Amino acid sequence: MSEVKTDKLTGVGTAGSIVVTGEGNSTTTNLQQGLIKAWVRIDGDASGASIDDSFNCAAITDNGTGDYNVSRTNNMSSAATYYIIDGQYINSGYTAGAWYDGTTTTATVQYKVFDGNSSSSAADRDPVGYSVIGDLA
Asked: What is the pLDDT of residues 80-105, one digit of tens each?
């Protein structure tokens, strides 16, 4: 088996586009389009929420119970064309989920957490988090 080691890949035809052959050799995918552009794991139980770990996320603002703004290091190309995949936390008989709302820009997401067993009221939970897919600016 061959091994390739490199620090950088650049497309020949288009510098920002690399096509990878998929399983079965019958389809291809654009490598950049298939990557998660940002993710964050939040400790919402902390006094003032904190980021446990992240990629391409710079800071968090705690707006109140279950309500956070997370800013990214590198912006998305358009606030209207990226998508959030949220995480869920299930423990001790309750379920928490999240959605993005309010101030969604190319640089930040307002992320709200709710307790599924208490009429969807806002809740501080640990851990919660999300991933971002779409095009970087």
From this structure: 888 888 876 666 555 666 666 667 78
Which residues form the domain of 95?
36-133
- Count of domains forming the chain: 1
Residue of 39 and 19 predicted with greater confidence: 39
- 77 vs 93: CA distance, rounded Å: 40
Start-end of H helices in 3-135:
none
Residue 117 within any structural domain of the chain? yes
Residues with Cβ within 8 Å of 85's Cβ and at least 6 positions away in sequence, in order, are 130, 131, 132, 133
Judge whether 28 lies within some domain: no
Q: Which residues contact 100 (CB under 8 A, 6 or more apart)?
A: 84, 86, 109, 110, 111, 112, 130
